[in-house]
Amino acid sequence: MEVKSILEQKKEWGCLEIDGKGNLLSASPDFFQHFNVTPSELRNCTVNEVIKYPAFQSSFQSILQKPVFFGTVAGRSCLLRLTREDDRFFLHVLVDQDEVRPSDILSFAQSLAGTRKREAALGYRYSFDDIIGESPAAKQIKELAARVATSSSTVLLTGESGTGKELFAQAIHGLSTRKHQPFVAVNCAAIPDELFESEVFGYEAGAFSGAKKEGKPGKIERAQHGTLFLDEISELPYQAQGKLLRVLQEREIERLGGTVSKHIDVRIIAATNRDLQALVQEGKFRQDLFYRLYVFELQIPPLRKRKEDILPIAHHFIHHFNGELHKNVQYISPSLEKWLLENPWDGNIRELKACIERAMNLADSDTLTLESLYLPSFQGAEPKNMQSVDEETAEAGLSLKEEVEKAEISAIQRALRQCNGDRLLAAQALHIHPASLYRKISKYQLK
């Protein structure tokens, strides 16, 4: 039997409705018929009594990260899918394992892998299915992003570092009419001023010493008919901003050393973790470019404002690192869950991922514990310490800008000390791009 036809007929196999505590609320008539059970047999039962799957003992949220999985239903091995609507879960029985050949499952998996490879070749690999979160904040931003994805309008992604802005950019591209065209990312903070034009606009043969004899297309040309993602757009030098503005206005580019203009058709998605309007006021960002980018802004919420998503994301990373590190972690201890939910996560999802990876490296059982986190740099650090810092700066009469600069200098100096002066490691510890760190070191005249 073809896997596709089986999945199309999945309603015939039955469905269970479950509350957030794992209690069975109801079952579809076809479930009773297919598995030869009666309503009275399921009355007052929990999902663990009917479905045998280890992760159920930890969290339904962890299973939401898996599209389908095998579990045992009333003693029979079945292919299952768990979905959620508000505070209720629905467990769909897709197929009895005996009804499908292993080769069919393998063929189906290989077809999905092929799709992923084609997407990767076009420069993107994430979709909205990869954006984990069922909190109101996460649902709202995903819904807005999905709605704007179908147009060709410019999108400005804003939010703190580590919130997943590039993931959203790739998901928007993957849902757009341009999904079969290239997705090209440009890290504006990583391109030196003198290389910006040749890297972004490309160059003709003989344009400068060391240029390829056949010339080279730039990032914009490579994104033709697709999406150009301008990451860290706030770090773009002022002169380069003017050059980019002309491209956006005229929809034409001219390679360095060239004499012929070429029409371009690209969608622009830009991202920043800074306040562009404030930079405009300070004269550091062009107002005309700002309005070219500020067509549709999507503010990606920080992790601390979507606490309901912390544990599901943590379980997602556990599943990921189980494969990468050859572990078999299934659970999170109550004390670690409490710590995860109370941590401010200033580095957002990127910090959470690093935290789980560190714990997974030290895990020696099927359960992650608070002890496995190993946080030597933060031992004894409590939220109240942050309050004393705030009070100190307030008493000193510092302006908000001065307070931010003081905190930034302190963080950079601490990171450099901890990394023995290695700037690349310090940038990684601070969750910023090395180019941004170099600029800040120069700005504050740090050694």
Please tell me about this protein's structure.
- GO terms for molecular function: ATP binding; sequence-specific DNA binding.
- Keywords: ATP-binding, Nucleotide-binding, Transcription, Transcription regulation.
- Residues 131-361 form the Sigma-54 factor interaction domain.
- This is Two-component response regulator.
- By secondary structure, the chain is an alpha/beta fold.
- The chain has 4 domains: 3-99, PAS domain (Beta-Lactamase); 128-299, Rossmann fold (3-Layer(aba) Sandwich), CATH 3.40.50; 303-374, Helicase, Ruva Protein, domain 3; 386-443, Arc Repressor Mutant, subunit A, CATH 1.10.10.
- The protein contains 20 helices and 17 strands.
- The chain has helices spanning 3-8, 29-35, 39-42, 47-50, 60-64, 102-121, 136-149, 165-175, 196-201, 219-222, 238-250, 276-281, 287-293, 310-325, 334-342, 348-362, 383-395, 400-418, 423-430, 434-443; strands at 15-19, 24-27, 51-52, 69-73, 76-85, 88-96, 155-158, 183-187, 202-203, 216-217, 227-231, 252-253, 262-263, 267-272, 296-299, 331-332, 367-368.
- A 6-stranded antiparallel β-sheet has the order 2-1-6-5-4-3. The protein has a 5-stranded parallel β-sheet with strand order 8-11-14-7-15.
- It is globular, with a radius of gyration of 26 Å.
